[in-house]
Write a sequence for this structure.
């Protein structure tokens, strides 16, 4: 086999690994007992570690480490909701208690799904871009970037978001107005009702189309907030690479979550629910949608990581910073990452423990978590003995990522096997997860088990 073909196969393997890993993490986000905000922390932090493991020792310095964790945390905090948006590609906007359906153009539903994906993880894309770019950000500018998102979102929720809903999904606005009229508030506009109960979707749940309208305003407002982040990064921070990466990740997320929505489209019966799906698809449509969303976005992340790896300038080994600075920054990042993963595993175990399971199963779950915690305590000593220059030496951050991430994934999959498989039997979504675990292990075991030594070239 020629060297060119070997490189191509290696690139394909890395891109596929990104897709499988993110599909696994996104699916576990919904099944593992830590959905929503905590689940996105697992997805974002896991994928940032995956990207870091491919940096080939191109260390950015101490500032890279806190930004990786901050990007993951901000992704979790800004994770949104979707209401009834993921059903609108069928052309059905709402189904009343008596079975009456309100219809909407399927293209309008697709546009809302694209908007949902684009606005989902802008901070994750910017953190990836920062990892691969050569620019350093000042703390004050980074804080301004962080504050910009909620400011733009809130301003748009009070103004432009409502106009965008009327433009992109006019049936949503019309249904909410009808619902207000039937609730005895005919003199109140959709905007007026929203402002009276600003950002409080729970109030609108008893009004026809209310919950969907509130979430639609939120989604479209977050699209503008994400766009503001990209523009700020490009023209204020002047980080072209980070802005481009953030834009590409948002586009991959938009396309990925919309493509995966086809599982729900066919699972619900297709256009206007007129073609009933097989029972296996009806029962697993939601799980397959979650997995498909992560898989497609992860494929995009993997492709970008491969491109960044190929286009990066060769790493130059330089003398390390004073040991105290290295230890402080590296241990801070490592400690936060390890604590986050340990908390997620414990939260997952506690959630599954509420089910009626044998005591032996629960004890095995805690034993898995204890083994993971023991590895986290042992890893820093191993890395320091192996590299002697800390996690920030070339090869150090990839080495740490190459141990923490697969250890977390293995422990999480162990809990999944203990609790989910016995309850779900041979559901298609379980077979997908089992196959994913096998493929991940086969693809990454040689790379994640072996710690790479830093090159000593140029180091005195």
């Amino acid at each position: 086999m020629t060297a060119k073909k070997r490189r191509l196969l290696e690139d394909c393997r890395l891109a596929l690994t990104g897709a499988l890993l993110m599909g696994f993490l996104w699916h576990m986000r919904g099944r593992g007992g830590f959905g929503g905000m905590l689940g996105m922390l697992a997805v974002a932090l896991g994928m940032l570690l995956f990207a870091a493991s491919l940096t080939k020792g191109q260390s950015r310095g101490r500032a890279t480490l806190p930004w990786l964790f901050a990007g993951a945390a901000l992704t979790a905090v800004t994770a949104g909701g979707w209401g009834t948006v993921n059903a609108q590609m069928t052309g059905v906007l709402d189904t009343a208690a008596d079975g009456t359906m309100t219809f909407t153009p399927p293209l309008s539903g697709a546009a809302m799904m694209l908007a949902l994906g684009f606005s989902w993880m802008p901070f994750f894309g910017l953190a990836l871009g920062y990892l691969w770019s050569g620019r350093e950000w000042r703390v004050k500018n980074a804080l301004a970037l962080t504050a910009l998102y909620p400011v733009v979102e809130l301003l748009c929720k009070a103004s432009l978001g409502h106009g965008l809903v009327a433009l992109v999904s006019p049936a949503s606005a019309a249904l909410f107005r009808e619902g207000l009229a039937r609730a005895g508030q005919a003199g109140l506009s959709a905007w007026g009702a929203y402002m009276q109960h600003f950002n409080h979707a729970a109030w609108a749940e008893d009004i026809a189309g209310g919950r969907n309208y509130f979430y639609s305003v939120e989604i479209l407002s977050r699209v503008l907030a994400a766009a503001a982040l990209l523009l700020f990064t490009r023209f204020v921070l002047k980080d072209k690479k980070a802005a481009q990466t953030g834009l590409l990740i948002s586009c991959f997320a938009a396309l990925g979550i919309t493509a995966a929505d086809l599982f729900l489209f066919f699972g619900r019966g297709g256009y206007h629910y007129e073609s009933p799906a097989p029972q296996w698809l009806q029962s697993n449509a939601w799980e397959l949608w979650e997995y498909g969303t992560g898989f497609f976005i992860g494929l995009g992340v993997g492709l970008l990581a491969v491109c960044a790896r190929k286009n990066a300038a060769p790493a130059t080994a330089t003398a390390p910073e004073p040991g105290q600075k290295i230890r402080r920054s590296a241990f801070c990042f490592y400690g936060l990452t390890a604590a986050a993963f340990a908390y997620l595993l414990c939260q997952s175990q506690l959630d599954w423990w509420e089910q009626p399971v044998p005591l032996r199963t629960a004890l095995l779950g805690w034993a898995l978590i204890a083994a993971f915690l023991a590895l986290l305590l042992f890893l820093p000593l191993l890395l320091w003995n192996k590299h002697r220059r800390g996690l920030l030496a070339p090869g150090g951050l990839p080495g740490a990522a190459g141990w923490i991430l697969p250890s977390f994934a293995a422990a999480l999959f162990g809990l999944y096997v203990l609790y989910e498989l016995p309850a779900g039997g041979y559901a298609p979504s379980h077979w997908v997860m089992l196959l994913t675990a096998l493929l991940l292990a086969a693809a990454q075991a040689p790379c994640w088990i072996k710690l790479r030594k830093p090159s000593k070239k140029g180091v005195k």
The longest helix spans residues 279-311. Residues 315-326, 387-396, 448-460 have pLDDT under 50 and may be disordered.
